[in-house]
Design goal:
Elements: H1 6-17, E1 39-43, E2 46-49, E3 54-57, H2 60-63, H3 72-82, H4 94-105, E4 111-115, H5 118-133, E5 137-141, E6 167-170, H6 175-184, E7 189-194, H7 210-223, E8 226-230, H8 243-246, E9 253-256, E10 267-271, H9 276-281, H10 292-307, H11 310-331, E11 336-339, E12 346-349, H12 357-368, E13 371-372, H13 387-413
Parallel strand pairs: 3-13, 5-6, 5-7, 7-8, 8-9
Antiparallel strand pairs: 1-2, 2-3, 4-10, 9-10, 11-12
Keywords: Aminotransferase, Pyridoxal phosphate, Transferase
Protein name: Aminotransferase class III-fold pyridoxal phosphate-dependent enzyme
Cofactor: pyridoxal 5'-phosphate
């Protein structure tokens, strides 16, 4: 009798008690059967699934840390605070210290507020932007991901037209489209949202022009609206500052998540003095938003960001991986597009079909060989990835290209 893998046994149980067995961005309906479903433990750049197999992970729990899983420095800080208390009737003194540290590091930031995930932060920014001048319209780039609340989720099931009644869309990196969107609402602009670069699933990533970033800032100033830069996915991955601050285009609000808690659940909204009064008026809260343990982890995270070469090392590893895979793809006759920064790589095959047979096939073969890559979502490297990890990954991707070439040849001859 065949013994089920534990992942399949768990999934059978999950289907009885969890709608669909899995939900959200981790739903297995989007991946092949070669991918693991449930994990037992994690450390550094590695994951172990419930069947005991180890993977070099390039998803990083969809980007929740900069230094790898369970960084001992961050874990020690979190454990020390856990011995004192976490969720209490009010915040710990760490909240004040963390706000001071963040505003000291990020050019445009004069104040900070804390929550738990990216959707919390982007939704808080929306409320504050509307409170700022009593305007209603929120301008978003078409297809840009700013979270999974009703006003911004990419999946419309269960969402009504009323949920999006005051959302106005324009084309990313298109000044003319943005200006038309602003004109269409006749002075009722509360905020314009922007991501530091375009990083949506299924599409090539790209950076906007400086002229576009400057135009967003200009139009916000002309409309007396707030510019919101969404750093949830990019926080401290490309810079130790807000990415648009580095361009000289300073937002009024910025949203931060994923990395800032060092793997612990924490996100933040940072703002300039321009938006301070509006931020003080709104009512936003959450039962676990002010937990002290994630803030202790965040303070240690920021210390490592400031005092180590984590960023430079991560880019070095990203470039090494990108160059190796690029050489392999050419040699095996595939056109693989690697876009965006190498620390957040997006890999898509030119000429792939609608169900991404090439992408799913190649990443499925790689994951069978212990390298966890994703077929259509941008990935994340951490400073815990070593040259040895990259070389081992390239061995897996080399074999995956060989397997993919055989699969493609068999399909062609069938």
């Amino acid at each position: 009798m065949t013994v089920l893998a534990r992942k399949n046994e768990l999934f059978e149980r999950a289907q009885a008690v969890i709608p669909g067995g899995m939900y959200g961005h981790q739903s297995i309906m989007y991946l092949t059967e070669d991918f693991p479903l449930y994990f037992e433990r994690s450390e550094g750049a590695y994951l172990w699934d419930v069947d005991g197999k180890r993977y070099i992970d390039y998803l990083c729990a969809f980007g929740v840390n900069l230094f790898g899983y369970r960084d001992p420095r961050i874990e020690a800080a979190a454990a020390a605070q856990a011995a004192k208390g976490d969720s209490m009737t009010g915040p710990s003194a760490l909240m004040v210290t963390l706000a001071e540290e963040l505003t000291g590091m990020i050019t445009h930031a004069d104040w900070a507020m804390f929550c738990k995930n990216g959707s919390d932060a982007t939704s808080m920014a929306m409320v504050i932007a509307r409170a700022y001048r009593g305007k209603r319209k929120i301008l978003l780039a078409k297809g840009a991901y700013h979270g999974a609340s009703a006003w911004n989720t990419p999946v419309m099931e269960g969402v009504t037209a009323e949920d999006r009644a005051h959302i106005v869309y324009f084309d990313y990196d298109d000044i003319e489209s943005l200006e038309a969107a602003v004109k269409s609402v006749d002075g009722d602009v509360a905020a314009i949202y922007a991501t530091p670069f375009r990083h949506e699933v299924l599409y090539d990533q790209f950076f906007p022009s400086l002229e576009y970033a400057q135009a967003v800032r200009r139009l916000c100033d002309e409309q007396d609206a707030l510019l919101v830069v969404d750093e949830v996915r990019t926080a401290f991955r490309l810079s130790r500052n807000c990415n648009w601050d580095d361009l000289g285009v300073h937002p009024d609000l910025s949203t931060w998540g994923k990395t800032i808690g060092g793997g612990y659940p924490l996100s933040a909204l940072l703002g300039s003095d321009k938006a301070r009064e509006a931020a003080a008026k709104v009512y936003v809260t959450g039962s676990y938003w002010l937990g002290a343990v994630p803030m202790a982890a965040a303070l240690e995270t920021l210390k490592i960001v400031r005092t180590t070469d984590y960023l430079e090392h991560t880019f070095k590893m990203g470039d090494l991986l990108r160059n190796g895979i690029a050489e392999q793809a050419v040699r095996h006759g595939f056109e693989l597009r690697q876009t965006g920064p190498s620390v957040m790589p997006q890999m898509l095959f030119t000429g792939d079909d609608e169900i991404l047979s090439l992408g799913r096939g190649w990443t499925g073969e790689a994951v069978k060989r212990g390298a966890y890559l994703h077929p259509y979502h941008n990935m994340f490297l951490t400073s815990s990835h070593t040259e040895a990890d990259i070389h081992q990954t390239l061995e897996a991707t080399e074999d995956a290209f060989v397997a993919l070439k055989k699969i493609a040849a068999n399909k062609a001859s069938a």
